[in-house]
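Lecture notes, unit on protein representations.

Consider one protein chain, 192 amino acids long.
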Amino acid sequence: MNARDEILAAARGALAQARSEESEVPGVHRKPVKLPDLVGLFVERVADYGVVVRRCAESEVAGAIAEALADARTVAVPDGFPHPVTGPAPSGPRTADAVVTTVAIGIAETGTVVLDHGPGQGPRVFSLLPDIHVCVVRGDQIVPGVPAAIAGLDPLRAQTWISGPSATSDIELDRVEGVHGPRSLRVVVVDA
């Protein structure tokens, strides 16, 4: 077992213990909790990062992708990407201005998208090299928080967690974008 597996096992054990202890408290009954509009919360949190986000119907996805790619000259499209991509010339990820991917999970509470590099997402290089990253997130892929995301992901797959465009700050706290990933993140949310 490597360090990553040990950390994940410890986190899962702590969550299981907390659930067990909660159910054993006498006189405490879990009230049904009305979940917020997860898709709406996700859109709001993603926009808080300064990300261009568009919520649309399935029939509008191709147009939303084309709009998100309007300023790109070339685009990398990974194998298994389920939507048509028109406009920019096709390219490999190392030379493309932009990339379009699907995601494994979206997290409403944090506005984070998670790629596990399955079909439609490509290898990790797809999410790191192009200047523009367009993510297509289906509403049924959005979970409330990080614990639900961890529970829904395969711990043996590589993962990339993205919350806003790539950014860092120098010693004077001047923000610099695009240092170790895309300068611009654009998210298309498809209502399920």
